[in-house]
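Format is sequence with structure; example below:
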Amino acid sequence: MIATLLFTAFIVLMFLGVPIGAALGLAGAVAIALANAETQWFGLLAVPQNFYAGLGKYPLLAIPMFVLVGSIFDRSGVAQRLVDFATAIVGRGPGMLPLIAIAVAMFMGGISGSGPATAAAVGSVMIAAMARAGYPASYSASVVAAAAATDILIPPSVAFIVYSVLVAGASVPALFAAGMFPGVLAGLALIIPAVWLARRHGMGSLEAQLPRPRFWRSLREASWGLAAPVVILGGMRLGWFTPTEAAVVAVFYGLFVGMVVHRTIGLRDLYAILREAGELSAVILIVVSLAGIFAFSLSTLGVIDPITNAIVNSGLGSTGVLALLIVLLLIMGMFLDGISIMLIFVPLVQPLMTHYEWNVVWFGAVLVFTVAIGQFTPPMAVNLMVAAKIAHVRMESTTRWVLWLVGAMCIAMVALVAFPQIALWLPAKLGY
């Protein structure tokens, strides 16, 4: 009965508009209190203990640093220089600006690993440029939101850091390597419908009239931004620093580029940057810590075992169970943010991963891929909210374009499920 109350309280609190983190913590605390009243062994001290335990993990130190990196590069002008360089390579023409938006967003993923941060950085540049070229604002917002979703797959990724904390045996370097090819696959899957839709509907009629940046000049100006992923990921691969230390290195590199090289960030801007990153980091980490209380309630009340047994004995088999989990994740992604989904979902599916002997690194890639789709799937699409706000359009107006992009990403995800080596080849090659 207490286990039923745990889920009921969580769902009711969400429908009442209580933030996800608070709903997780309150539901878990109520269940702990009731269990303590009945058995006298649970202990209310478990609430603060698990609040701290959910937060006191070394890999989580990287989250505020990578969030800060996203804020720094958002204001440093790197996105504009990368757009100019990409335009100099691919040229002008119908469908080229959407392709550039997706490519630049994927590259920005190798710097910050935060979808909303990339949606803001790329959207502030590309949505205005696409408007000048004759693309509808709702289409531009859809493309930018979908492109930014690839960022949680391409390393460094905040989502993979959270997953590594939740799942034993899933190291951050292995997960980062596993996300590289699926992230590229996702980007390629988005480019096809984005370019096709633009040409089919006659968008970008003015694009060919816009000037094409000079290659060597744009390369020179974009070189510091192009070097950022090399510094971050190359340093980790060479063993110069851990993923957590890499996040700190990325912060100082971004500050150097913004304040010394491009001089787009001044001392007065630092407070706003630190405040923005601090607020977003606080939201993420508070949700993580409160979810620790919820996860403790799940495991100690014996909720997970009956659910696992029911699924295993359902007769669906490994493939059927995996398909069911993906469908549930896609539905949850329409209403919850990615971090919350992982904190709720992973403790429940871990016994299934063990039972069916799924590779934890591959399953992490599948899970994060599914979460990425949810970042731009209405009605609660965080990337789409950011892009729609920049484009000054209602989210409802993007649906006709977003559905094509969601479909393309789903096809790419099916390929990842059918061919696990898409995620596992690079970690094995690198020796993780």
Q: What stands out?
A: The chain has a mean pLDDT of 84. The first helix runs from residue 2 to 15. The radius of gyration is 22 Å. Residues 41 and 93 are 69 Å apart (CA to CA).
